[in-house]
Design goal:
Elements lengths: L2 E2 L11 H11 L6 E2 H6 L8 H6 L26 E5 L2 E5 L27 H10 L5 E5 L8 H12 L6 E5 L2 H4 L6 H9 L4 E4 L9 H12 L3 E8 L7 H13 L3 E7 L13 H15 L6 E6 L2 E4 L2
Parallel strand pairs: 4-5, 5-6, 6-7, 7-8, 8-9, 9-10
Antiparallel strand pairs: 1-2, 3-4, 10-11
Helix pairs in contact: 4-5
Bound molecules: iron/sulfur cluster (SF4).
Iron/sulfur cluster binds next to loops.
């Protein structure tokens, strides 16, 4: 798998004006995309729902929104440990991802030097000092972008704390880099099973043969898989698109779990869909197809999630 990290590596596939604008944007919000996900875009312009998710666009330079609207960076006093709920701790395991999704709530971290989480003792001590934390979420960046040994150390330390009952891994790898699930990674998941994977498909075109194979390999290790989508303008803000996405996911064993409204993060507001529209779409899905294929529609706030449907 190749990861493109500069627009100049792919500019020959894109119209010149788009490439020039993207080069200005990548100075502020860097670009990263796997060759797999890049070639999943059927047309290399913003009419394509996959292209819109990875290709920098000039609207990202708007000053609308905040860098860290939910105050994640100060929530525990320990770098990369985020606590917004009494019973949950989120570990920002790295700032590297296979793809930098243009709507990401943590795009403020992309320009920092690459880091991988190595505060194992602080993590373990924090969990032991806070037995009310029953649920730990490994997030990022993408935890599967970490060396396997490091991911293992994290899982081992978390599992050593008896009060932690649920461990989740948030990853877009099944969507953007489905080929990375090799024997070593799958054995690790099997060793620490049962685990939950929260993945993030946004459009039916992302449910490919390769991503289905990755999902099936993951399910065989004993993990359960939930999907958390974001409602994104020009990507998935239509009934037919969401219906097809959620049916494809449910049919391969992935539960559509949340549909989030786009967070008020700087550089992402051109993706924001009116919340009333999200409510309307979700209610219609629920009434026509029931909860098996309909996620909860939610808005994230500084004080936690607000469930709208
Ligand atoms: S994979 Fe997740 S953390 Fe990484 S850029 Fe995409 S949304 Fe953000």
């Amino acid at each position: 798998m190749k990861i493109y990290t500069k627009i100049e590596e792919i500019e020959r596939f894109v119209e010149k004006t788009l490439a020039d604008e993207a080069k200005a944007v990548e100075e502020v919000y860097p670009f990263r995309c796997t060759d797999y996900y890049f070639f999943l875009a059927k047309s290399k312009d913003f009419s394509d729902a996959v292209f819109r998710q990875f290709f920098p666009e000039k609207s990202e330079l708007s000053s609308c929104g905040e860098e860290d609207p939910f105050g994640e960076d100060e929530s525990t006093g320990i770098p990369h440990l985020v606590r917004r709920y009494k019973n949950r701790l989120l570990v920002v395991t790295t700032n590297l991802c296979f793809v930098y999704c243009r709507f990401c709530m943590r795009k403020r971290n992309w320009k920092a030097s690459p880091f991988v989480f190595d505060r194992f003792d602080e993590l373990e001590n924090y969990l032991k000092a806070h037995p009310e934390i029953s649920d730990v979420i490994l997030s990022g960046g993408d935890p599967f972008a970490l060396p396997v040994e490091l991911l293992e150390e994290l899982l081992a330390r978390i599992r050593s704390v008896e009060s932690v009952r649920i461990v989740r891994i948030g990853t877009r790898a099944p969507v953007v880099a489905p080929g990375i699930f090799d024997g070593k990674r799958l054995s690790l998941l099997e060793k620490y099973a049962p685990l939950w994977i929260n993945t993030h498909f946004n459009h039916p075109n992302e449910v490919t043969r390769e991503s289905r194979d990755a999902i099936l390999s993951l399910l065989k290790t004993g993990v359960s898989i939930n999907n958390q989508s974001v409602l994104l303008k020009g990507v998935n803000d239509s009934f037919e698109t969401l219906k097809e996405l959620f049916f494809r996911l449910a049919s391969v064993g992935v539960k559509p779990y949340y549909l989030f409204s786009c967070d008020p993060v700087k550089g992402t507001q051109h993706f924001k869909v009116d919340e009333g529209r999200g409510v309307e779409l979700t209610k219609r899905l629920l009434s026509e197809f029931g909860p098996m294929v309909t996620p909860r529609f939610a808005v994230d706030t500084r004080y936690g999630k607000r469930l709208l449907v």
